Amino acid sequence: MQKHKIIEPAENELPSHYADRLGVDYTATVTLGHKKSSGQFFTPTGIAKLMASFAAPSSGKIRILDPGCGTAVLSSALIEWLVNSGNKFDSIELTAYETDLNLKPFAEAALNYLRKWLGKRNVDFQFILDSEDFVLSNADKLIDSSLFSTEPEDRFDYVVSNPPYFKLPKEDMRVKVTKGIVSGQTNIYSLFMAMSAKMLNANGQLIFIVPRSFTSGSYFKEFRKFFFKLIKPEQIHLFVSRK
What Cα–Cα distance (Å) separates residue 7 from each residue in 24, 64, 122, 123? Predict the structure, then answer.
């Protein structure tokens, strides 16, 4: 793909709004087929702000994981919500994953602007934007038999995600490394949920936008057993339509 010029943020623009505009701009450069094959469904700012509002406020030093960040709309909305909640932050660390190398410059622009926005509010912000496959690069977390990951640097206070959605064949390496959690032809979003649950702090919060297919059926039986040992649902919002 030909290198695309990144649009600039407007004066005093909210980071989530800028990230949303970047997403719209990126979408205009790719085909519908590309988005479907990558399972890309970008989150509108209104939905991102709704999801962010479910997060309980925090303070001090916090760590956030966004395992499929797109242009970082969800991360931006969550951080805006937390900062505007009135609590004081020593620092915010974000680890974000984006495997689409054509999309990565858009995400970098959004996160760099988010850092400037936070700097004006005296909040130190550091981020890592990883282009590795989220599931494969963290497969070792599932091998650990303890309830939570043993290393503090692997844990997060918040995980926020609108993960990719597409079915995985049995021979897919991501299915193989999550053997025992999935069965049959699973959907990749469930692997994002399982991995994220394992990487969450004991009192951390998981905020996901996902289909409801995981709630029933034999394909997701082992996933449900695994997931609900780690996660206690507190809020569920049902959207009327995927649109």
Answer: 11, 26, 26, 25
